[in-house]
Amino acid sequence: MQVRERLTRCSNGLVKLSLFVQKAAQKPPVQLTAVHGVICKMNQSSIYAKLEFLRDQFIAGELKPCVDQELKLNGHIFTKNVWVEPHESGELAVIMLAIDKLFITNKYCLGAIINKSGSIEYLSNEQLWDIGIP
Description:
By secondary structure, the chain is of the alpha+beta class. The protein contains 2 helices and 8 strands. A 5-stranded antiparallel beta sheet has the order 4-5-6-7-8. Strands 1-2-3 form a 3-stranded antiparallel beta sheet, with no helix packed on it.
């Protein structure tokens, strides 16, 4: 049996390990592929859907600020943090889900500015980055 391996970096920053296994009489080689982090990687749309749900719960008063609460989502364990901080036009509410991987922690956030007038401005992850969160 012959085994060759190749490491490549994917466009999303993950490292892809390709193993080519060939038995003596087998042609062409069988390719087995594993990407570091795939076990923890899940569809980001389901993460953001959960964040939107949690943000709506917070705005409705059904979710209170919390620190490092465990949340299971599609078989993966996330850490949930919800906090409020002052903002120039009212209060900024932030909902964050984080998942620990081998060497890094991925953080996903959504927010809302609750203006003094009562109006609500929804913030994306990128808009939160622009103001320094997380």
